[in-house]
Write a structure and sequence with these properties.
This protein is of the alpha/beta class and 248 residues long. Helix content is 49%, strand content 15%. α1 (28-43) packs parallel to α3 (79-89), α3 runs antiparallel to α10 and α5 packs across α10. It is found in: Peroxisome.
Length: 248
Amino acid sequence: MSNVLAKKIGQVLQVTLNRPEKKNALTPTMYSELSKALIEAKDNFDIRVVVISGAGSAFTGGNDILDFLNTPPTGADSPVMQFLSVLHDFPKPLIAAVHGNAVGIGTTMLFHCDLVYATADAKLSMPFVSLGLVPEAGSSLLFPRLVGHAIASEIFLTGRDFSGTEAHEMRLVNEIVSDPLEKAMEVAAAIAEQPPTSVINTKALLKSGQHQAVAMVMEAESELFRIALESDEAQIAFMKFLEKKAKG
């Protein structure tokens, strides 16, 4: 069975990260499957909204560390970079349903979603600096614009996690609910009933003020991320992470 499931329900495409035994940790193949699902949704007029969720106990544990080290994203044609590009340019409403851990890209992808629903105890984190890396997915621009420089600096530089409740207070999350997927699908169905061209044009207008700026920041982040990934600093940080994980 695929680690990314795509199921059309009415005019909504439900995309599920389906690797629960690994907390839905993302592999290059999963990034490619996510890109494929979004591209097909973009080109299918009968799909009006996409909802992303995670199977099991987590939204996603972020990148699968071993896969990440074995096949590092060193270029614009890497599966992760292609996914981020598709995500940034996706023209239709994108809704995330978040529970459990949302690590790294599990949090940064939320900045590209139009609506986010989460449980109060969801645990979001962007531990890039802790791993000797830099932020990605345009988060170095989008996060401080959302929460202010001071809070963004604290979270990025310390690597601390924050709850769904705190994310709601930051206005990253629309609403705290007990069943994020149920709420996301309910809202998606309501949006799907709206005039589709009007919906697409409105999303484009909402993003127009910073769309190009985000693309430029993503390109700079990608280059700095690549350089950082090849550094001794990052390699040591990854080894420490793996040792800590092995010890439980």
